[in-house]
Amino acid sequence: MRDGVRGRATGVIVLRDGALAGGDSHFYYTGRYLVTGDKWRGELVTHQHTPADGPRPLFGERDVSVGFSGHHDAGGAAVHGTALVGSRSISFHAVLHRLADA
Predict the structure, then answer these.
(1) Contact 38, 71 (CB under 8 A)
(2) Contacts made by residues 82-86, CB under 8 angstroms, sequence distance 24+
(3) pLDDT band at 40 (very low <50, low <70, confident <90, very high)
(4) Residue 45 half-sphere exposure, CB side, CA atoms within 13 Å?
(5) Are strands 27-36 and 39-48 parallel, antiparallel or unpaired?
(6) Cβ proximity of 48 and 60 under 8 Å
(7) How many angstroms separate the CA atoms of 40 and 36, rounded?
(8) Mean pLDDT, the chain, as a whole number?
(9) CA-CA distances (angstroms) from residue 3 to 8, 68, 77, 89?
């Protein structure tokens, strides 16, 4: 996270034919992406499926829209984006590692 916000996320995202889906122990993600050369961009929505034990997650108890763009190569991708959490926008940077081809 950027802008002085503390947070991190881990999970799995499957990218296939312009659609993405994935999740972690508390959230699942759905969305779309577009690839042009070595650049890509897209949007996803996070949905909470399991309440958190302990501190409330930053996105807790609400669907959050996330827009992103970045670069990719054979090993994975890096993205910069903005999550709209209620009336607040939170900037972030993420690194995705390719685990397997479909």
Answers:
(1) yes
(2) 83/46, 83/59, 85/58, 85/59, 86/62
(3) very high
(4) 6
(5) antiparallel
(6) yes
(7) 6
(8) 86
(9) 13, 16, 22, 10
- The phi and psi torsions of 3 (rounded to 5 degrees) equal 60, 30
Q: Round to whole Å and give the CA distance between 82 and 26.
A: 20
Cα-Cα end-to-end distance for the chain: 30
DSSP 56: P
Question: What tokens appear for 47 in the block?
Answer: 């949905």
> How many residues in total does the chain contain?
102
Residue range 64-102, pLDDT digits in tens: 899 999 999 999 999 999 988 878 888 888 899 998 886
Q: What is the pLDDT of residue 57?
A: 62
pLDDT of residue 51: 82
